[in-house]
Amino acid sequence: MAEKQLKNRVCIIGSGNWGSAIAKIVGRNAARLPNFEDRVTMWVYEEIIEGKKLTEIINETHENIKYLPGHKLPENVVAIPDVVEAAKDADLLIFVVPHQFVRTLCSTLLGKIKPTAAALSLIKGFDIAEGGGIDLISHIITRCLKIPCAVLMGANIASEVADEKFCETTIGCRDVLLAPMMRDIIQTEYFRVVVVDDEDAVEICGALKNIVAVGAGFVDGLGFGDNTKAAVIRLGLMEMIKFVDVFYPGSKLSTFFESCGVADLITTCYGGRNRRVAEAFVKTGRSIKELEDEMLNGQKLQGPITAEEVNHMLANKNMENKFPLFTAVFRICRGELKPSDFIDCIRSHPEHMKQPTPKCSL
Ligand SMILES: NC(=O)C1=CN([C@@H]2O[C@H](COP(=O)(O)OP(=O)(O)OC[C@H]3O[C@@H](n4cnc5c(N)ncnc54)[C@H](O)[C@@H]3O)[C@@H](O)[C@H]2O)C=CC1
Ligand SMILES: O=C(CO)COP(=O)(O)O
């Protein structure tokens, strides 16, 4: 009789900047925890670097020299170029690819994974849905692969996490049986996890903050100061809250005060790639695509495409004027508005038209 498998097998789908940083944590936890199989598979989108395959480099040197140079990955993390081979035996699939690649990956994996597997998505972004709306990435994974999908989002700039500098993160997971397994494989002394059940709001925070970070980069590029950036962060936060309120009613305001909310917004508006490239866009007048290719060495920006996806929905619902900051970021990235128009947008933001509500005099 076949021995019952007691240990969970983990596969990380993605090996970019964040994928590699999380592999360091997951690999170490899997080797340490009795309920996980030591060996962790990591799907690597194969590329040739100085004549050698990236998977071979990772397996021989235990370093992703392209996306996370200078950090050793645990030896039990095994790089695999075939996603089906990497994922087929896994009980937990950790998705961490730039969001534009998730649909193709899911269709490749369809019918090839364990039906009892669960997923955790670290992907920040949306996709365009049929009928003029947007899809959450975790919903796409669940629908395509027919497995539950929780999310992990937080103030987690990958290089700082890889340096083991203290930070927090948020797991959004409604399933009380899966949540402890997800937390155990992720949590360390320096990477503290809070689990909440407000899955959709956690994920939406992670996607929308990248649009706000592009706006923060614009004001940096225009030479404005920290007060202006704080205004962008505040107005961006108000639009994020409104977005969730309008399109995903029933979510909790408290979620915005977790790491996935205000903390991720702040760190990305100061230290993220979206901010950096948006600043260069204003200063050089070159296209976002050119700057992304030149400045990020293969890493991918999520903010400008997320702004486009959100605008697709807002325009369809005739609601662009209700989210002027998101709309202005989209139009500036497209070249339809000048970066300096961003200041007019935040100056005349509807948040400034609010009237105080009179107190009841009883
Ligand atoms: N880097 C960071 O600090 C953080 C990133 N995230 C999120 O994690 C997700 C993944 O980001 P990163 O790991 O930083 O990726 P990255 O920005 O480093 O992207 C590069 C990755 O995309 C892969 N790739 C290129 N072309 C591909 C294709 N056609 N199909 C599939 N993969 C392809 C590359 O091989 C590489 O692994 C994103 O949604 C991002 O917003 C979340 C928190 C922190
Ligand atoms: O999501 C991030 C930090 O939590 C990283 O943001 P960037 O993609 O702008 O670098």
TrEMBL record:
Keywords: Cytoplasm, NAD, Oxidoreductase
SUPFAM superfamilies the record matches: 6-phosphogluconate dehydrogenase C-terminal domain-like, NAD(P)-binding Rossmann-fold domains
EC number in record: 1.1.1.8
Entry annotation: catalytic residues: 209 (proton acceptor)
An annotated GO cellular component: cytosol
Binding site for NAD(+): 14-19, 101, 158, 273, 300, 302
Group of enzyme by EC: oxidoreductase
BP term (GO), one: glycerol-3-phosphate catabolic process
Main location (coarse class): cytoplasm
UniProt-annotated location(s): Cytoplasm
Catalytic reaction list: sn-glycerol 3-phosphate + NAD(+) = dihydroxyacetone phosphate + NADH + H(+)
Binding residues for substrate: 124, 273-274
Pfam families linked to this entry: NAD_Gly3P_dh_C (PF07479), NAD_Gly3P_dh_N (PF01210)
Signal sequence, start to end: none
Claim: Cytoplasm is one of the keywords in the record: yes
Keyword Cytoplasm: yes
Residues covered by the Glycerol-3-phosphate dehydrogenase NAD-dependent N-terminal domain: 10-175
Functional pathway: Lipid metabolism; Phospholipid metabolism; alpha-glycerophosphate cycle
Gene Ontology molecular-function annotations: glycerol-3-phosphate dehydrogenase (NAD+) activity; NAD binding; protein homodimerization activity
Domain Glycerol-3-phosphate dehydrogenase NAD-dependent C-terminal: 198-343
Subunit structure, as described in the record: Homodimer.
Family under the similarity heading: Belongs to the NAD-dependent glycerol-3-phosphate dehydrogenase family.
Protein name, as recorded: Glycerol-3-phosphate dehydrogenase [NAD(+)]
Species the sequence originates in: Arctia plantaginis
